[in-house]
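Record 1 of the preview.
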Amino acid sequence: MPRLTDSPTALLPPALEDCAVQVFANGSLTARADTVAAETPVALVFNGVSHAVMMATPADLEDFALGFALSEGLIDSRADCYGIELRCDGAASGGDLEAPAVEVHLDIASRCFARLKERRRSLAGRTGCGVCGIDSLQALDLLPEAVPQPAWLQALDGRAVLAAFDGLAALQPLNRAAGSLHAAGWALPDGRLTDVLEDVGRHNALDKLLGRLAAAGRLGEPGFAVMSSRASYELARKCARLGVPALATISAPTALAIRIATQAGMRLWGLCRGPRAVLYAGAAGSDAGW
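->
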């Protein structure tokens, strides 16, 4: 498996920043120090050509870049990425504000790069971005691949889903400090969490998780994704593209997310707030709504 290029992670901007706030409570105003999440422009550069600029939390960026490349279909497998390098070369200027900026350079297979250039789109990602930046309705990709149907999936029930959410908060140190980050977690079929990645953007958090799994060769292992967000169509689409057979979110899904999950053969849970979870797509059973 190709090795990632050593990257100067120590030079990354901090994921959390301090700020002074005033808190109104019980009829009085009190000054105190607080912690907030950083949003950093992250340019994803493929074979020297900038493809996208995303606003992201500057942590786990190698995972983010690999997951983005895979979940957006820019590369076909982990083997198509020969190396990843982080470059922190100054600030991005935008009006009166300047923010530390990071470039993530990916060296990808020439076959994938040629395809990327053919359908290249310029997209400026925001924290809650969806399809912003595509140049036409024809560029929408709403036809999901069919996901595998492993034997363990039939035994996956609401108990395991809720068990994963019960353990999610304890594995979110950045959100515990700042209160504004999403989490994407990987849970085993019994609900035990093995990985949790955080970002100010829900799509970014999922890409970080998928990239972490791909880098370790674990994308095909038994398990499902859980997220501290709603299930938008993009999240279902990314999971389907990488063969993740089940997704559970703390808030409700959109109608399009349900349709994509249904077409892909995914199980999609939403409103996973114990003691109840709702199964919106997938094989119905006694645990369809808790």
